[in-house]
Amino acid sequence: MTFVPLNAVLADALAGGYGVPAFNIVNDVSTEAVLEAAAEERSPVILQTSVKTVRMYGRKKLYTILAGLAEDAAVPVVLHLDHCPSREVISDCLRGGWTSVLFDAHELEVAENLRQTVEVVAEAHAVGASVEGEIEGIQGVEDGIGSDDASAQQTIEVSVDFIQRTGVDCFAPAIGNAHGQYKAAPVLDHQRVSDLLAATGVPMALHGGTGLSAEQFQDLVKRGCAKVNISTALKEVYMRSSLESLKRSEEKGSWDPPTLFRDQKEAVTAMAREHMRTFGSSGQVR
């Protein structure tokens, strides 16, 4: 199966009232785990790559790895470039087979962000890919991009105008969410999601999901967050399972890399399956 564009899975999710999980994979093991969970749960899934991961592997090599792993997937798989402020990297990934990109230009003035997003949308749509847009930075640093300082929140009117004039396929609103682990329970503006969806009909993307309760996730999904990002949770599960596996190896005096890979994969698969069930995407692929 080739990668499908983001709008192909979000339209069904929005109509069906469920959220499609978007996992920030970091290597082949985490990718295999996410794809295995999606197959077991019969869930559409989004493989998200950070700019950092693209640069670490190189665009061509990373695409070859991910496309090879997803080749026999029996569920729809989107390949998405997450939080990218670089037009050069976006163009390179669109040429190289990515089917969705997030043009993260929130640091620009809204007018300039809008102007450039229009260009990105035209570029992406020309090759059958989708675009996620944003005009407010989501608090927290993720893969070297972002800030611990919250950016100014725009009015609903400004956000609606941006969505309608750019033609983005998905929009990431700031609703009090943050990347990374929350130091305290977040106070989220759930109504903002409902208002933006009602005014535009465009699916919303939820960032900063790690640490939210199942009830918070499910309420936001019902309100229009058809794309739900999971990054920190994957990284933490991956690293903690690695640490535990290595400790067991040390205790036994047995150093077997395939055992480490198996433990990593099992942990990430379990995490991914849990999120799919929470978001209601399990069983949506008939």
TrEMBL record:
Record's signal peptide: none
UniProt KW keywords: Metal-binding, Zinc
Gene Ontology molecular-function annotations: aldehyde-lyase activity; zinc ion binding
Binding site for dihydroxyacetone phosphate: 180, 208-210, 229-232
Cofactor(s) demanded: Zn(2+)
TM helices/strands, residue ranges: none
Active site: 82
Annotated positions binding Zn(2+) 1: 83, 179, 207
Entry note: cofactor: Binds 2 Zn(2+) ions per subunit. One is catalytic and the other provides a structural contribution.
GO biological process, one term: carbohydrate metabolic process
One Pfam assignment: F_bP_aldolase
Keyword Cell inner membrane in record: no
Residues the entry annotates as binding Zn(2+) 2: 104, 134
UniProt name for this protein: Fructose-bisphosphate aldolase, class II
Lineage: Bacteria, Bacillati, Actinomycetota, Actinomycetes, Propionibacteriales
